[in-house]
Amino acid sequence: MIETLAAILVTVVTAATPLVFAATGELVTEKSGVLNLGVEGMMLVGAVSGFAAAIATGNPAIAILVAMIAGAVMAFLFGVLTLSLMANQVATGLALTMFGVGLSALIGQDYVGTPIKALAKLDIPVLSDLPLIGPVVFGQDFLVYLSLVMVAGVAWFLKSTRAGLILRATGESHDAAHALGYSVIRIRYLAVMFGGAMSGLAGAYLSLAYTPMWAENMSAGRGWIALALVVFATWKPGRVLVGAYLFGGVTILQLHAQGAGFAVPSQALSMLPYLATIVVLVVISRDSTRIRLNAPACIGKVFHPET
């Protein structure tokens, strides 16, 4: 019984980790006042780039770095279109997702079905062998622990640093930030590229650790769930972590339900994570006052610098 519970908890953690990375990056992006709906596309490009780098070099560190750079480049492209050329952020984000889906399929056509060795798990003598706690807490790979560090780091950055306060101020009133002499466009470029790098990292986790292989559309809608998580968390990093693990639990629940042979169509069970996303968004949207109080006031608005 304990071993089964431990196995379930381990899979919940692994299912939640890519959501933690992607949602944390998107939270920073939105805090700056930019709405990037291209998370899914950036995740896929990061996943295939990291996988290709892992095949070419055999070095997981280089593969992870390449995935982050690929995600950041995709985000930079989004920034050029929306921040410099002032294109509509929603339309551009959707186009970025479609572009990422197609580009990743093109790059990865020679890698489909090619397995690689998964990222090594932490193995601490005695601690990793403890019942339940050992495999869950001391038996994960490096990226799982990095995801927790990133959430804590972003929370500290936004709340306790001058740069974080400037970022938040830019998202709340870009005109006021500009009047105080801050470069709104530069700040938003950096925030957008950070979000892209985190999405690329989420993709790398999928192709290097979660399912160590490449398959087209392997993100399977996780980018959209990450976007919903930011709203669910009311733009607070700690709640992003909680929400990601809740959604990870729902994902694993449907897998175990299918394995247990419940008399429910597998397609219906596979819909559970996305159905949960819709239900959460509907419930949250009923409290419009809370959303207005927590959402950055300038999110999605084009900034026109004075000449």
From TrEMBL:
Q: Which UniProt keywords apply?
A: Cell membrane, Membrane, Transmembrane, Transmembrane helix
Identify the Pfam families for this entry: BPD_transp_2
Q: Which GO terms describe its molecular function?
A: transmembrane transporter activity
- Membrane-crossing segments per the record: 61-83, 90-112, 132-158, 189-208, 214-233, 240-257, 263-284
**GO CC terms on record?**
plasma membrane
PANTHER family reported in the protein's UniProt record? ABC TRANSPORTER PERMEASE PROTEIN, SUGAR ABC TRANSPORTER INTEGRAL MEMBRANE PROTEIN-RELATED
- This chain's protein is named ABC transporter permease
**Lineage, uppermost ranks:** Bacteria, Pseudomonadati, Pseudomonadota, Alphaproteobacteria, Rhodospirillales
